[in-house]
Amino acid sequence: MTEDRHVPAPAHRPDPSSAFLAAIADGDKLAVENAVRRHWFELIGECSAAASALRGMADAALARRPLLDMLAGLCALETGDEPERGMRRIGRAVAAAQDERAELMAIDRALILWTESARRQRLGSDAQAIRVARAALEHALVAAARVQSLPLAALFTHIGVSLHYAGEVDLALEAFSAGQTTAPATPGPAGATELASRAAAFAYEGDVPLATRYLEQARAMTDAVSPAGAVNQWVAASMIELEQFDSAGILARLDAIDMEVPFEHQIAVCTVAAMARMVQGDAAAGLASLEARIRSIELHTGRAVPPSSVAIARSMLQLSLGNVRVASAIVESDFPPGPTREVARARIELMRGHPGAALRRLAELSTDRLPLRTAAEASALETATLLRRSRSSRADAAVDYLGALLARTGMRMPLAFLPRADFDRVVTALRAAGHDELFQGMHARSVLPDIASTTTLTARERTVLRALMDSGSATEIARELYVSPNTVKSQLRSIYRKLGAATRQEAIMLAVERQLLEPRAEDDPEDGSSR
Length: 531
Hints:
Layout: H1 16-26, H2 29-38, H3 40-45, H4 47-54, H5 59-63, H6 66-79, H7 83-98, H8 106-122, H9 126-144, H10 152-165, H11 169-182, H12 192-205, H13 208-220, H14 227-242, H15 248-252, H16 263-280, H17 283-301, H18 311-320, H19 324-334, H20 339-351, H21 355-363, H22 372-387, H23 393-409, H24 413-416, H25 420-432, H26 451-454, H27 459-470, H28 474-481, H29 485-499, H30 504-513
């Protein structure tokens, strides 16, 4: 990926059905299939012309061409024309796409399976939708290695969006990254809705310059943008603004969003809005609005929101509120396995005051090819852990890499997701290394508190606090520890002050919440690996 990737200028788009209809009229089945591959997303969005044209094709002929079979089935459902036959055709096409023995192009398998994934997602079959989308991505990657003349960027974008809304963040970022690779070679102009979708995809991936260019082109198009396209424009613009620590405009534009959009787009809006409130400094309002909106979506759609689809937002909001234990539980229960979960675990270890454990988590990712956003968050955390110790050549290298990565991608939120003291250290190091331009024109800040630094207890205070959990009075604790009651009372006052607790029960609860009673073994400074 390079900064000067060419994004084609907006151009007049021919009617996507013209080549398709001409091929149908000529009876050229190969030309029909090629036209369908090139204009798949437009044709399934405007089924009336395709339905009429395909109605004349014999069922046996369609059965031999699964891509046309799938289109015919979708159009039959969309127009209400023989829905039972439509479902039979869809089932037949999907079975062919899943049959490795069938002679079928990888691009056809990917298009059919993505479409089936999107259909199942809209029906509420989320687990099945994810499984089919995974298969679609595998076939799309195969197709990308074989063909250069088909709209693969659009395919990867659609697969990525489906996976992202389903909570499969790592796979989604892999799809977006593949879409970036194929975008320059993809011929033909795109409409405003498609450009907005690409802008949102690259904003998720973490390529802010490319997301900005696609967003500008989407806004410049004269096409009427669909409601889903308008949501993608809002999501892309909002994520770009978050990287500038500007959340006011995001929330101001929220009321203009038409929420009569597909289920997954509604989830995207409420999660981005919640994160904007966190950046604004009101994580409590962000969490409350997220939970209320999720409940509203579930009641109005009759579908349960998959926990994985909002896990990142929920965990970050809980961390911003200082609820490390709750955030950790969300990461362990709702995050799918993969790099994103390991980065989240490393962040929690850092907040708990265990930089060595954080570094060990990150070391497990050092040989992986990470998507941009994941790589930037991992790099920021690694730099923070190394800077907690004395400066070294390894720390200097981490600072330089982080600065170069942030400059290239336009991302700044990976810094915001560091505890405040670490944020200050990393920003100071970046400025000292000549990366002042990263912070020009913005009020960069952390959204996470310093849990560990403000509640660090001495070894004796931890011993007293453990005894407090089993004893009822300072006298009993003093007897158990062979010290005077006044010494115990003094240590208890210090414990209460550090924890911000007013009672014995509150002190115990906060200590357990922040895992302050666990052993605090010194970390191995050689653990981990610089990326």
